[in-house]
Structure formats: structure tokens, C-alpha cells
Design a protein that fits this description.
Number of helices of chain A: 18
Distance between the termini of chain A: 89 Å
Number of strands of chain A: 26
Shape of chain B: elongated
Strand content of chain A: 15-25%
CATH class of the largest domain in chain B: Alpha Beta
CATH topology of the largest domain in chain B: Rossmann fold
Radius of gyration of chain B: 25 Å
Distance between the termini of chain B: 85 Å
Number of domains of chain B: 3
Largest sheet of chain B: 10 strands, mixed
CATH topology of the largest domain in chain A: Rossmann fold
CATH architecture of the largest domain in chain B: 3-Layer(aba) Sandwich
Mean pLDDT of chain A: 91
CATH superfamily of the largest domain in chain A: P-loop containing nucleotide triphosphate hydrolases
Helix content of chain B: 25-40%
Number of domains of chain A: 4
Radius of gyration of chain A: 28 Å
Structural class of chain B: alpha/beta
CATH architecture of the largest domain in chain A: 3-Layer(aba) Sandwich
CATH class of the largest domain in chain A: Alpha Beta
Helix content of chain A: 25-40%
Largest interface: A-B, 80 and 82 residues
Strand content of chain B: 15-25%
Number of helices of chain B: 13
Oligomer: heterodimer
Low-confidence stretches of chain A: 589-600
Structural class of chain A: alpha+beta
Shape of chain A: globular
Largest sheet of chain A: 10 strands, mixed
Chain lengths: 600, 462
């Protein structure tokens, strides 16, 4: 036992012999928990996960002997945890509307029994490895929880329980370890959050993570096992975009870490998700979702821990062979928590007060994403999507610029687009994806071989229109040639008919890859047909008045992903519109162009 | 320990006093300090070890004589006594009466720091509040339990806008406001405080208002306590007495500056513009106290007012605020200079909770689309106006000139309205359609074709 020497905000200096860095400590009369972050002689410096008001020097302190760990087993899905994996619904039942300090509630329910089905392959005295699948528990209707042995276990199985109902604390098996000791096996095990869980090897990511959001899937794709960042100033629609991804993406498990964000947003997710159906399984989305919440008014040290808790949970489901998406909103708040603690430790600040190790911590965190071959020999992936909240929307600030070097897909949100209510406000010029070649293989194989070329054509058109827009802003649209005006119009068609996507419109909210490609190809088709006419001498302003253009802008919200036939029928009508016009110009080599006047 | 006076002040500087040799003082404890003149000052323990205790003195350390300073550690955090009697009262930043009436006596004394609300216990705000202001109701609607700040600048009428919201805010179908108001002013001028007081008096709600005032010439450190005391009162009214509470706080910039002042004294490492790295967490502790709780009837809706230094929305205070609050109402100097009241810059303004509080079953089914269309059309119109400034309006096409007229009318008639004009949300939507009818139907792709047929009155190009 030790005692408190000094209290300074969330930092507490303790007299505590033989404590280890990272070790959990329990401090004071109300039993606040924290972790050791420094040692000097007989004293230890600890950061506490809860507010330290009321603690006094001289009160008792105790080392717990283990680092910050999470419980991994059935009971995780559908739950909401705080930054140190306390289940918030159980805490609510225990301590009321407000989170009282020192509440200790185990992460997994202890009284609930799960129906365990042992894997038939196991016999007694089988060699047992870490990460082996002992059996399964049907945790929710859509997700089968595979019960894994602790990753570091080596030994042989000497007993495995028969099929039946067990709580997480019941012993479901015994293993003799290499040194002859007997280890009990449970439905759950613990793992320290700051240590990545082991796997056999890293695999190449090959499959796109489809989100149903056209600008993401079609223009800046992300792969399962990839790393992405969503930077954006406040009000740019970051949260909405992340919620859309969490709703629609084709991963099997979604982990949403609300790190220093608004309480109401988590409430929104909690109230909304159970009502929403997973488009891929037809079951409530909440059955595949898990939330970790450290809202902005919850203690800052637990905020630092929350992203590690989230990624460890993600790795655990990956090790069961699932494709997992983890959304961290926002990594900037996590970095700020790091900065706050560093500041109190008196560490030398480098950029904007951040400690020098910001970049390496961020990189190490994102490296925990990836597609792997698991210890059990299966395949699983963790896709990591980190929101970044750059102060003032300035992408050159430390967190954004470090993140940009680490990730492969960058979905830059723009304030200007958001102000014009162009959502999702993903800036098509600032964003990038390093996964386009891999994604192209998938699209070519599953959707259409023309995907990569069509994507490039659309991006060229958008880039060209940006140039033209600059000219227009200086001298007005009348100064453009007919061909240039048509380019501008076609780019506008792509922006409004394809890139803009309404999250709150039932039809438009999600687009299948088939629908995405059909719309893209159709709009490019309109551009090409029009261009041909313009080259024949048709004035752009005549084309711009075609009712087809306004109609095409509505297709996205008119035809759902399962109404492809109707959509294709409309698209098939495009050539006829232009052919009717073309006759005028082809015959006369100018037709009515002379009468209407071609702008010079 | 509460009753022992220590006379062991070892040093004092810039609002901080170090007490030597007082073992076992609890962190965050309140301190009462008596100087050689017998005056009492308040303080707070911000660092505690057996050999040295660091105390922050709210009234400052001027004229403090270390040898003749007596300090008592009260062994509890700052608490606010609460009871029904707080209604209609005026307090200072630390919760003591400043209206000349007796102090509140109550056994129920609450820690002003509050405790974080469990996200699982929150109820999502969905009830549309009609403020009677078109720019807000039509395009940036407020919901019960939301925190929606007003971003303003020196000389802009943010106080008048805030007061108008307080006067007019009500739920649809209600005849009169059901709200009680908690008003907190920190760093505000006496004139501002008087303006609000008179506004509450004129509208006859003064007996339903609780005021916490820490004015510009009053102790800076007390400013850190003012919003916390006010919100403690608000939480009591909302979640113990079931009231719907509207909290108006002004000016958050003064609060953040006070925080910076204290942080510098403490020697905290500065992050941006000298503000401490924990400015975000600290502001969140205040803003996040707004909301609703499951199974409770009351709610806290918060309208903080903040002035953007040099009208810069990327300044740390509005920037961090925008990341915490559920949107913002931005006031524009340009519109104000043109005589538009309320000068709401609708494009940078935003209400994040609007999507869940308007439309079918809440206001009218076309509301979300109309709002989206107004945003798009006005954004386009401003682009045209920018172009007209360069090449001249005569050079514009007829279609573009239509947008110019739309922008003009939109600013005059939709954004602009009287200070006493209380428009229902239906009047606002009808007005929006009147304005959208200036534009051809093919330019309106954010509204559905059904809605166009029902509401749009396009007369064709004239």
C-alpha cells in the first residue's frame, strides 16, 4: 500500500514502491482508478481517469498489478462503453443520470448466460494455441461470437465443456501450459489496450469497403483493412458522413468511438441505430455495432485511453475472422488529451503545444489497422477511419498534417461546400486515395470494366470546370466558348446529380455500386453527346435548357438501388434526346446556329 | 479543519497564494481568506501537497499582507444553495445575492461543477422550438435541449437577437412561452445587463428569470464560476422541478479570456493564441450541461452569445465552441450595415439538430427541402452578386439578374424582420415559397416535383 503525496489536476503523485509503468492504480477513499505514467525512486506519477476533486494528500493508494485492459467476450455488441470500458447502461442503472466517480462495473454482464457450442474439432490433449476458436456463441441474430483462447496461450487442452449455457465467469475448459501449470478457460479473456493483438501475418487489402456514398466509393475508395482520415472544420458534416459510413458500410462489425465529442450525437446513434436495418443482413444495425463514448465533458485522461479501447475491441473481432470498421471521432480530441497531459508533465512542447511524440503515437495507432491472417488461420480486417478536427479548418496544423502522411485515403471536407449545403462536402480536388488501382480491379471484375476510365474522365471534367470557373468569376460566363460552357454545365451535372447525396433522403441515402456506376456513366454520356453537338455548332445555351439535364439531376433520389431497371430505362433514353437535335445541325452544317448566334 | 485559520501564507503573486505546512487539504476545496482589514475573500485549492498548497484567490491578491492573512480550508467544493426561491433573483458570479435581498437558505447545496451526464441517460432533442425569426426557424431551427450559440462581433445586435428569442420562443401549438430563463452575464457591461433586465421586465417574465451577473469591472476569476453557478441553477430547475429552461449566457469570449488569464498565472503550457490546451474540455464542461434526460420532463436549451475577436470565426473561441455546440447562428456585419435586422448570415449558420425536428409530423413536410433549396439558391445568388460586382449587373444574363433580385428580396423580406415581429413557422415557409417563386422551377432541384406543383407560383420569365 502507498499513499497520495500531491494532487495536481488529473495528475497525482504517489508514494508507491515497485509499481510498473502503465500499471493500474486505485487511489483515495472513493477508489479512483488511473495508470502510472512515471516513476522516480519510491514515488510514482499517475494520471487518473476521473476528476480528482476531494482527494487529499495522505490518502491510500494501491497498485493493481495489471495494465489498462479490456474484457473480450460475448456481451460486447450493442453496448455502449465509456473510455475505460465501463458499460454505460449498467453504470446508469447503478449511479443514476450522472456518472458518479469511483463506480466500478465489469464490462461484460456477469449474470447473463450464453449458449456455448464447442467446436467439434477439439479433443482432449489436443495442442492448444493462442487465438484458437474453442467454440461459438450466437451473440446476436446476425453475429456469431467465436470464443478465442487468449493470444499468448501455449499448451494442450485437457478439458472442454459440452454444449450448454454458461456465464462469462464459468469455466468452460482447462489447458495444461508448457510449464505444467493448469489454466482455466472462460468465454472471455483480457487484453492490455496499448499492446496490439498478435496475428500470423499481414495480407494485402483487396476488397473495397463500400459505403453507399458515391463520392467515397466511386471517387476516393477505401479498402477493407485500409486507413482513412476525414478532416474538416466544424459544420462541414463530419459527423453525418461518419454516421452514414457506420450505417451503410459492408463491414460485419462497426465500432464507433466518440472521443471528446457531443453527448447528443451518441444519443442520436443510440436511439437511431436500433431502428435501422442493416442493408446486408436485414437485421437491426445495433446488433453489429459497439460504441465507446468519452464525450467532451467526460474526464480527459479516459479520452486518451478510449481510442485504444476501441481499436483493441476491433482487433478482437478481426481475430474472429470478421471485417471490422472502426470510426474514431475525433482523433484531434485524442491528440489534445495527449497534449494536456504532456503539458502538466512539463514536457517540452513543439508545434502548437503538442509534444514531440505526437506523430509517432498517431502512426503507431493507425498501424493497428490492416487485413491479416489470424492466429487461427482465418482472415479478418480492421479498417480505421479517423476524423480530424483541424482548428479553424487549417489543414496545415500538426494533427492533420501528421495524419495525412500516415493514411492512404483522405476525405477532405470543405467549409465552402458545406455552406452551400453541398453534402457530403468532400472536396474533390483536395481528397485523395492511394487505393484506386486495387479498387479498380474489384470494380472491373464485379461492376464494369470501364470504371477506372470513367472515374478519371469525371475527375478531369471537374478539374477543367474549376479552371473555367475561375475565368467566369473574373469576366463572366459570356466570355466562354460554347464548348467551355458545356464543360461547365456537365461538371455541374456531376456535382449535383452524382456527388451530392442526401443522408436524410430515404432513396438517396445509400447507392449500390451498380447504381453509382450507372449514374456516373449516364452523366458522362450526356456530356459526350452534348459535346458532339457543340462541335457541330450547336450553342451550349440551347443544350443547357434541355429538360433532360434537370431530370438527370433527380435520378439519384428518384430510383433506389433496387430499381435499376427503371433507372436504366431512363438512361437508355439519353441518345434520342440528342439525336433529335443533331439532325438540325448535321444537315445544314450549322442549322439554326446562325440564327441563334454562336458567342465569340 | 473547517474551523482552523492558518496563517502560513508563504508567497502570493497574481491571484495565487502558496500555503505552507497545511497537510491533508482536499483538492478543489473552497477556501475562505481573511486579510488584515478583515475583508473576506474566496479561493479554491488547485494543487495540494503536504508541504505546499496552491490557492487561487477570486478577488485577487492585491493588498495582501502575508503575515496578516488568515486562511480557512472549507473542505468542500463551491456549492450553490438551490430552492424554488431562486426564481426572480439576481446573484453574483459566485451565487451570492446582489439584489439586496436575503441569501437563499437551503439544505440542498449543489457542487457547481456538476457531474458528467451519462450519454446513455440522455434523450435526443427533437421538439421544434419556434423562435418567430425566419432565418432561424426556416433554415437553422432550434430544438428543445439544443445548445445553439450566437456568433457575433462588437457592435452587432446579438443582445437584441438573444432577447427576441427569449421573448418569442415557444413550442408549436403553445400559446405562450412555457420557459423559465436562466441568464448569466460575465464580463458584460452594466449597460448590457440593464438591457436584458429591462427586456425581461417589459415582457413580464422577470419573475421567471434567474440572473447571475459578473460584470466587466468585477473579479475576473469569479467569471470562471459564473456559468457553472448558472447551470447548476438551470439543472435544478429543469431536472428537479420539471421546467423547460432557456439558458442565455453572454459573453463566452470574456469567459475564455478569464480562463487564459488564470492559466498564464498558473504557468500552464499555452496552445493556440495563448489559450491553454484544456480550453476545449473546459468549454465542453459548460456547453454539455444542456440537454434532456430520459424519464425527466424538463430540459435545458442553451443560447450562449460570443463575440468573435476581429469577426474571425477561426479564432480559438468560436472555433472550439463550434466543435462542441450543435450548430451556430452567425451574425453578419455586412447585413447589419445595410440595416437588416436580425443580420443573420444564413450560409455559415447551421443547426445540427434541425434535421430531426422539422418536416412531417413536426412542422410541415416541405420544410427540410425548402430550407435546403433556400441555402442553395442564396449561395448561388451570392456568387452572381460577386460576379456582378466585377463585370457589372448589365452584363449578366436574364437568369442571373433574377438571382440578384432574389438575393435582394431574400435579405430584405426573409432575413429581415421587425424586432417585435413574431412569425409562425408556416408564415416563414410561405414567405420562402413566395421568394422561391422568383426563380424558375428547373433551378429548384432540392424540392420535390410534388412540392413545386403545390407551392411554387412561377409566372414565367417576364
Amino acid at each position: 500500500m502507498g499513499k497520495i503525496l500531491e494532487i495536481n489536476g488529473p495528475l497525482v503523485k504517489l508514494e508507491l514502491r515497485e509499481s510498473v509503468l502503465g500499471e493500474q492504480v486505485r487511489v483515495g477513499a472513493i477508489g479512483l482508478v488511473g495508470e502510472v505514467i512515471g516513476r522516480e525512486g519510491d514515488s510514482a506519477l499517475a494520471q487518473l481517469y476521473e476528476d480528482t476533486a476531494g482527494l487529499r494528500p495522505g490518502e491510500a493508494a494501491q497498485g493493481l498489478g495489471w495494465p489498462l485492459s479490456v474484457e473480450l467476450g460475448p456481451g460486447l455488441l450493442g453496448a455502449i462503453f465509456d473510455g475505460v470500458q465501463r458499460p454505460l447502461h449498467a453504470v446508469w442503472a447503478r449511479s443514476g443520470d450522472r456518472i458518479a466517480r469511483g463506480v466500478a462495473v465489469p464490462a461484460l454482464p456477469r449474470d447473463r448466460a450464453w449458449h456455448f457450442v464447442p467446436s467439434p474439432a477439439w479433443r482432449e490433449t489436443c495442442a492448444l494455441q493462442g487465438g484458437d476458436v474453442l467454440g461459438t456463441v450466437q451473440e446476436t441474430a446476425s453475429i456469431q461470437h467465436r470464443i478465442l483462447t487468449p493470444p499468448l496461450l501455449r499448451g494442450e487442452l485437457i478439458e472442454l465443456a459440452p454444449e450448454g449455457d454458461y456465464t462469462v465467469e464459468d469455466v468452460i475448459g482447462r489447458a495444461r501450459l508448457a510449464d505444467g501449470r493448469i489454466d482455466k478457460l472462460h468465454l472471455f479473456h483480457r487484453w492490455p489496450v496499448r499492446t496490439p493483438r498478435p496475428f500470423r501475418r499481414r495480407d494485402h487489402a483487396v476488397q473495397p469497403l463500400l459505403t453507399g456514398q458515391r463520392i467515397l466509393d466511386t471517387f476516393y475508395p477505401l479498402l477493407k483493412g485500409g486507413k482513412a482520415a476525414i478532416p474538416g472544420p466544424f459544420g462541414a458534416g463530419k459527423t453525418m458522413l461518419q454516421q452514414q459510413i457506420a450505417r451503410w458500410c459492408n463491414a460485419e462489425i462497426v465500432i464507433y468511438v466518440g472521443c471528446g465529442e457531443r453527448g447528443n450525437e451518441l444519443t442520436d446513434v443510440l436511439e437511431f441505430m436500433p431502428e435501422l436495418m442493416d442493408p446486408h443482413t436485414g437485421r437491426p444495425l445495433m446488433e453489429r455495432t459497439l460504441l465507446v463514448a468519452n464525450t467532451s465533458n467526460m474526464p480527459v485522461v479516459a479520452r486518451e485511453a478510449s481510442v485504444y479501447v476501441g481499436i483493441t475491441l476491433a482487433e478482437y473481432f478481426r481475430d474472429q475472422g470478421y471485417d471490422v470498421v472502426m470510426v474514431a471521432d475525433s482523433t484531434s480530441r485524442w491528440a489534445e488529451a495527449l497534449r494536456e497531459v504532456a503539458g502538466r508533465l512539463g514536457q517540452m512542447p513543439v508545434e502548437e503545444g503538442y509534444p514531440a511524440y505526437l506523430g509517432s503515437r498517431l502512426a503507431a495507432f493507425y498501424e493497428r489497422a490492416g487485413r491479416v491472417e489470424t492466429l487461427a488461420g482465418g482472415h479478418g480486417s480492421v479498417t480505421l477511419i479517423g476524423a480530424v478536427s483541424p482548428p479553424g479548418g487549417d489543414f496545415s496544423e500538426p494533427v492533420t498534417s501528421h495524419t495525412k502522411e500516415i493514411i492512404q485515403t483522405f476525405w477532405a471536407l470543405s467549409k465552402e461546400l458545406a455552406d452551400a449545403r453541398h453534402y457530403p462536402s468532400v472536396d474533390w480536388l483536395e481528397s485523395f486515395s492511394g487505393y484506386v488501382p486495387s479498387a479498380a480491379r474489384w470494380w472491373a471484375e464485379h461492376i464494369d470494366p470501364g470504371w477506372e476510365a470513367a472515374r478519371a474522365e469525371a475527375l478531369d471534367l471537374l478539374a477543367a470546370s474549376e479552371e473555367l470557373q475561375r475565368i467566369v468569376n473574373l469576366v463572366g460566363v459570356e466570355a466562354l466558348s460554347s464548348e467551355q460552357r458545356w464543360t461547365l454545365e456537365a461538371a455541374g451535372l456531376i456535382k449535383e446529380g452524382l456527388l451530392q447525396q442526401s443522408a436524410i433522403d430515404e432513396v438517396d441515402s445509400f447507392a449500390s455500386p451498380q447504381k453509382q456506376y450507372a449514374l456516373l456513366a449516364a452523366l458522362l454520356d450526356i456530356h459526350r453527346h452534348g459535346l458532339k453537338l457543340v462541335k457541330l455548332g450547336a450553342p451550349a445555351r440551347r443544350l443547357i435548357q434541355l429538360p433532360l439535364l434537370a431530370q438527370a439531376r433527380r435520378w439519384k433520389s428518384q430510383f433506389a438501388s433496387d430499381q435499376m431497371d427503371e433507372l436504366r430505362a431512363r438512361i437508355a433514353g439519353i441518345p434520342a434526346v440528342f439525336e433529335a437535335l443533331a439532325e438540325e445541325y448535321e444537315t445544314g452544317g450549322g442549322g439554326r446556329a446562325g440564327a441563334e448566334g454562336v458567342p465569340s | 479543519m473547517k474551523n482552523i485559520e492558518f496563517r502560513t501564507a508563504a508567497s502570493a503573486q497574481g491571484g495565487l497564494v502558496v500555503m505552507a505546512g497545511v497537510p491533508g487539504v482536499s483538492a478543489g476545496s473552497r477556501v475562505s481568506l481573511r486579510d488584515h482589514m478583515g475583508r473576506l475573500r474566496n479561493g479554491l485549492v488547485i494543487r495540494s501537497a503536504d508541504d505546499a498548497v496552491l490557492v487561487e484567490v477570486f478577488e485577487g491578491t492585491d493588498e495582501l499582507d502575508l503575515e496578516r492573512t488568515w486562511v480557512r480550508f472549507l473542505d468542500e467544493p463551491f456549492r450553490l444553495p438551490v430552492s424554488r426561491d431562486i426564481m426572480g433573483r439576481v446573484f453574483n458570479g459566485a451565487g451570492q445575492p446582489r439584489d439586496g435581498r436575503p441569501p437563499i437558505i437551503s439544505a440542498d447545496r449543489r457542487d457547481v461543477n456538476g457531474e458528467p451526464l451519462n450519454p446513455a441517460a440522455r434523450a435526443y432533442p427533437r421538439e421544434f422550438i419556434q423562435t418567430g425569426i425566419s432565418a432561424i426557424d426556416g433554415m437553422n431551427a432550434l430544438t428543445r435541449g439544443q445548445k445553439l450559440p450566437v456568433f457575433s462581433g462588437g457592435g452587432l445586435p446579438h443582445n437584441r437577437v438573444a432577447a427576441q428569442i427569449v421573448r418569442q420562443a415557444k413550442l408549436l401549438g403553445e400559446d405562450a412561452a412555457e420557459f423559465v430563463v436562466v441568464f448569466a452575464a460575465f464580463g458584460a457591461s452594466h449597460a448590457d445587463a440593464r438591457f436584458f433586465q429591462e427586456s425581461f421586465e417589459d415582457s413580464g417574465v422577470l419573475n421567471k428569470v434567474v440572473m447571475f451577473l459578473n460584470l466587466a469591472d468585477e473579479p475576473v476569476i469569479e467569471r470562471l464560476l459564473t456559468p457553472r453557478a448558472a447551470l447548476t441553477a438551470a439543472e435544478y430547475l429543469a431536472f428537479d422541478l420539471d421546467y423547460h429552461v432557456l439558458v442565455v449566457m453572454t459573453d463566452m469570449t470574456a469567459y475564455a479570456e478569464a480562463l487564459r488569464e488564470v492559466a498564464v498565472l498558473r504557468g500552464d503550457v499555452p496552445a493556440r493564441k495563448g489559450y491553454p490546451g484544456y480550453l476545449y474540455s473546459d468549454l465542453a464542461e459548460i456547453y454539455e450541461r444542456a440537454g434532456r434526460i430520459k424519464h425527466r420532463r424538463g430540459s435545458i436549451t442553451m443560447i450562449p452569445v460570443l463575440s468573435m475577436p476581429s469577426d474571425d470565426i477561426t479564432h480559438p473561441i468560436p472555433d472550439l465552441t463550434g466543435y462542441i455546440t450543435e450548430g451556430q447562428i452567425v451574425l453578419s456585419r455586412e447585413l447589419a450595415n445595410q440595416g437588416v435586422y436580425p443580420p443573420v448570415a444564413v450560409l455559415p449558420s447551421l443547426s445540427r439538430l434541425m434535421k430531426d425536428g422539422v418536416g412531417k409530423n413536426f412542422t410541415r413536410e416541405d420544410h427540410p427541402h425548402v430550407a435546403s433549396q433556400l441555402f442553395a439558391s442564396y449561395a448561388k445568388a451570392l456568387e452572381v452578386r460577386g460576379l456582378a460586382a466585377i463585370i457589372g449587373a448589365e452584363e449578366l444574363s436574364e437568369g442571373d439578374r433574377r438571382y440578384l433580385r432574389f438575393a435582394e428580396q431574400f435579405e430584405r423580406r426573409f432575413i429581415g424582420q421587425g424586432e417585435d415581429e413574431d412569425r409562425s413557422v408556416f408564415e416563414t415557409l410561405n414567405l420562402a415559397w413566395d421568394l422561391l417563386s422568383m426563380l424558375p422551377p428547373e433551378a429548384l432541384i432540392r424540392v420535390s416535383e410534388d412540392e413545386l406543383a403545390k407551392y411554387h407560383k412561377w409566372q414565367g420569365a417576364e
